[in-house]
Amino acid sequence: MKNIFIIFKKELKDTLRDRKTIFMMVLLPLLLVPMLIIGMTMVMSAQADKAEAKVISIGIAGAEYAPKLLDLIMDNDKIEIDNSIPADSLADFVKKEEIDGALIIASDFQQKIKNDDQAIIQLFYKGTDAFESVYQRLSAIIDEVDSTIVTERISRLNLDKDLFDPIAIEKIDLSSIQEVIAKLGGGFLPYIFIIFGFMGAIYPGIDLGAGEKERGTLETLLSTPAERSEIVIGKFLMVMLAAIMTALIAMLGFYIGIKSFPDIPEEFIVIISKMFTFKIVFMILTLIIPISAFFSALILSLSIYAKSFKEAQSMITPFNMAIIFPALLGTLPGIELNYQTALIPIINVALATKDVLAGTINPILLIEVYLSLLIFASISLLFCVKWFQREETLFRV
User: Fold this and answer.
1) Range with the poorest average pLDDT among 65-79, 115-129, 166-180
2) CB-based contacts of 141, cutoff 8 Å, min separation 6
3) What is the pLDDT of residues 363-386, one digit of tens each?
4) 3-state SS assignment for residue 133
5) Which CATH class is domain 59-164?
């Protein structure tokens, strides 16, 4: 144990002297995460404002059959009507994006309304339109006309308006605001600390394996009284510490980013602050440690096997996608923590974190997540020690 601590201390000093490592571990997540959160929110807000302010052009066929609808559209200063397009070409013009949308009103529109029947209006638009602004604007105007016609019919026929709505649904959402926030946005937090935890382990992991081979310092380390397994564990602990610290700093950056954004309602800030209690932070930390151990052992294994720093980088880079994809799955709605997903590395951490933040974590499933991560981390570490004990691996040429 003493030799392991000495190796760990030595690697820690070497790592702290490296400015690149400090930047990757501390400054990058602390600066990048708040900037990402604020930047993404500002871009989405700006795009929504842009879509709302945009003047859309539409074509109308049969406008004379629905004068009230035409008046409402003409009164809207954010809608322009193009009367130069033939009725049979409207759909093609929308498809080619020469106009934003189109309405086709049947010639029997007024007759249907007078007969208390249902009249049809065809609305053409492209669903790829940002925020579906064309559909939202035109359907809102049509709904306004529809509501007027329904009110007139009810009044003329002396009917009770409840006749047309015999069953009223009283929605009572028993989810707390904390649960809603955790389920909708809580998946983003584990995505951040998983990705940055992996990133935090990459540079020191490569440097302590392939880097030492290139510098020629590995032979000196092997000549010490420390056993090879002790050297591996010492290096592993250093890489794991880097991964954990980077993940925690990324979480801090996430919290700073949320607190710094001015457009978030104050009550949300209060709830988010309450969510990050000592108990919750501690539970998240217990999830970060085993997943960081898994990443660290995996990266160190590949680094020890690699002949050079460059080869180690090319071997580890493809794992970025293998990490990002399951981490991203954990952010999607509908994917829940159960006895199956609790066994899948990375996904289980993302899902468990969401439940921890919501305060709805199942203790049995949480234990299953811990056991799964510890087993995978142990396998990775054993594999790492095995590589380090092989001469042909250490001195590959």
Assistant:
1) 166-180
2) 69, 72, 73, 76
3) 899 999 888 888 888 887 887 788
4) helix
5) alpha beta
Beta-sheet strand order (sheet of 121-124): 79-81, 56-61, 101-105, 121-124
> CB count, 10 Å around CB of 45?
12
Residue entry with tokens 């509501």 = 147
Residue with tokens 């159960």: 338
For residue 75, the one-letter residue type is: D
DSSP string, 57-80: EEEEESGGG-HHHHHHHHH-TTEE
Instruction: Decide if 323 contacts 155 (C-beta within 8 A).
Output: no
Q: What angle do CA 171, 338, 371 make, to 5 degrees?
A: 145
CA dihedral 325, 327, 329, 330 (to 10 degrees): 180
Question: What is the rounded distance in angstroms from the CA atom of residue 137 to the CA atom of residue 57?
Answer: 12
Report whether pLDDT(180) > 70: no
Q: What is the DSSP string of 300-325?
A: HHHHHH-SSHHHHHHHHTTHHHHHHH
Residue 361 has pLDDT above 70, yes or no: yes
Domain borders along the chain are 2-38+177-394, 59-164
Residue range 258-279: mean pLDDT, rounded: 65
> Burial of 86 by CB count in 10 Å (0-12 exposed, 13-18 middle, 19+ buried)?
exposed
